[in-house]
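Please discuss these two lines.
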Amino acid sequence: MEAPLQNEFTFYQDGNVTVTQSRFVTNSKTYAMRNISSVHIFEIIKSKTLPITMIIIGVLMLFSDASRVLGLILLTLGIFILAFTKNEFSVRISTNSGEVNSIVSKDRLYIQNIVSALNDAIVYRG
């Protein structure tokens, strides 16, 4: 990672992200704060179609003696997948070239901390 500029104020920093008054640095990209017009949390909703379909088919298969075991397996697997499917959150920034999801995580608080730091940096710049 680059050495910080001398009079640069850091709003947030961890192993993957740095937010200063003039830069937003992620693992793969660096954005100039002057080019960021807005920032917000964006929720990426994961599809639950597959596990719900598995649950429905599994329940229907429980009524047949020949496929009861397979139905129980499908039902259990569908419930397991549904229980562990979590939505993801991203830092969505708007720049002069459009909107982009810069950081994606399942931890909403982590994303909220980065968004707050970016908002503080935007306000600080004026």
The radius of gyration is 22 Å.
